[in-house]
Amino acid sequence: MLSVMNNAKKIKLFLAISYLSLIVLFLWFFFSNFTLDEIRSYEFIKNNRNFLLGLKESNFFLIFFLFAIFTVLWVLLLGFGSPIGLVGGFIFGKWIGTFIVTLSLTLGATLLYLVAKFFFYDLVKEKFEKKFFALNENFKKNEFVYFLIYRFIGGIPFFISNILPTIFNVKLKNYFFGTLLGMVPQLFIIVSLGSGLEKIIDQNSKMPSIKEIITSQEIFIPILGFLFLLCIIILIKKKIN
Question: Which of 64, 79, 85, 62 lies closest to 26, judged by CA?
């Protein structure tokens, strides 16, 4: 038990150092090439939007692959899913973006689940087993269906929702496909927002107002979709307590 706890602490320390190192490296690279005044300007956003899309058009499969690898590493380093969804929609559009974001997040989450199951099982069990005892009983009835609902409902920080199923001992097949299918509705909405922002920037030579952004079809429809999805989630939560 003590050996497992020590290994868990070492891995957590490694992940934390790796995560901070990547952030520092990115910030150093970014601010060594751009100033704060440039970043604040709408022209900077528009020009870099053109650069990213041009890069995608000329090297689609390379950008696709690099984005997938980055997303998997992001999840392993305990990153959140929403920023990836917005960036994926911005670069790849609504449909391809949903595909690559969902697949990459699922792969990353599955790998993190395996790591947590191997190194952190006792720690996760100690922290969460009593709190989620009733959920554990439901999982025993129909593991795939309840895990699918678990992913669809969300409401838990992404990295915790990835490692929490270790206490339910979810089968790897059910974990992968439950994650892949369960996250699609919410990720589609997030990716659509990212795609909508890209279209707004493309259609406006000057920075649009907040009102113009919110009332535009590209943003308004995903927001309505999010509210509709939220209502469904609330109803499901009440149904299954």
Answer: 79
